[in-house]
Specification:
Oligomer: single chain
CATH class of the largest domain: Mainly Alpha
Strand content: under 5%
Region (Disordered): 1-20
CATH architecture of the largest domain: Orthogonal Bundle
Number of domains: 2
Keywords: DNA-binding
Order of helices and strands: HHHHHHHHHHH
Distance between the termini: 69 Å
Number of helices: 11
InterPro entries: Homeodomain-like_sf, HTH-type_TetR-like_transc_reg, HTH_TetR, Tet_transcr_reg_TetR-rel_C_sf, Tscrpt_reg_YcdC_C
CATH topology of the largest domain: Tetracycline Repressor, domain 2
DNA-binding region: 44-63
Domain HTH tetR-type: 21-81
Radius of gyration: 22 Å
Length: 228
Amino acid sequence: MERRTEKRTNERTEKQSDLRDQTEARIMRCAIEVFAESGYAGSSLANIADRAGLSKQNLLYYFSSKQALYLCVLDQILDQWLEKMDILADDSQEPASLLRSYIAAKLRFSREQPQASRVYAMEVISGAPVYGHAMQKKILPLMQKDIAIFERWISEGKMAALNPAHLLFSIWAMTQSYADFSTQMGLVLGHQALQDQDFDEAEELITGLVLSRLLPFSAGSKELKKCR
């Protein structure tokens, strides 16, 4: 009897936990939409709650304030973004393969999560008043690790000599613009929104530009043929 009661209690607890996780995930999705549309200052918990199908009081049960929710959103976005930087830490692959995978992953994030990218970009453009310290704390260690990898490739003659930090900045700028400026790009191209073909062509071009500048002539030529 006690075992059955304990089992029912555990099942009820698991269901409650699952429901909480689902509700939090829904709130986060809706918060990303609202923050992407209106920015942090122009957004309200009431608006986010309404979009999530909750009352404001119910939302406050999950997140104590707008800033707390905003920080959770930015944490999630940055963690997903930083996962892509880990690609460069794979010592089992050559520079060309890793750079190709990194560019593809960054563009995939812009294609699949444009609103998340815009939320992050808006925070950065405004001077990172809410999230600046967390950005520095999270990004710097991974960036230093990637820079060390680039410097090793340069010392081994696998990559042209350049400033690794500015290489990363350039790749970020080229790939993230397909999320942050997708509306402008779509208008210029005559689309309502960027198409899959646009992202495929962007990946080919960006990869070709990066590899042709960074890799020794023979390796770069082989990799450029794969881009065509």
